[in-house]
Predict the 3D structure of the following.
Amino acid sequence: MFFRNNNEVKLKTIDADFKTFVVDEGCLLSDLSVNDGFTLFLKFYQTKRVKTYDIQKDEDMLLFEYGVYDWGDGESFYLSFTRQLSSANPRAKMWQFKLQFKFPVEERLTEIPGDNLWCSDLNGLEVFIDKVVTSPAFQTVSDSRNGEVGLTLFSV
């Protein structure tokens, strides 16, 4: 009989695995606040390794980014937590798994300049968390539940 390592996920199922993880934690993806989403995304990053990507070699990194953008349907404020997966193999694609919150534009959100922050491994996680939770964007929308919540996995 084959037993799957519960701490390992596959790239092609990371989005489904995260959705299951969220439900197992007693939440619904569509009901998450930004703070809840960040907490769950971090816990998933800390406890679930993506098969064939070595976190000690900068192959499994975190990105926090936010700002006002117009992706074709008018301006919105976006805040996202991304897990970037890149292999040491130069022919392999780089992947991003993103938990994104999209908010209607309000004056208080347009005043926040867009920015991003990277975390390359578990050793830098504490500093990363501190910078995220003290950022103006996180401070402004951390408890908000009026945004659209989405998950995407794509190659870059």
Observations:
- Helices lie at 14-24, 34-47, 107-110, 125-133, 136-141.
- The chain has a mean pLDDT of 91.
- Strands lie at 8-9, 49-50, 60-70, 75-85, 95-104, 115-119, 148-155.
- The CA atoms of residues 68 and 111 lie 9 Å apart.
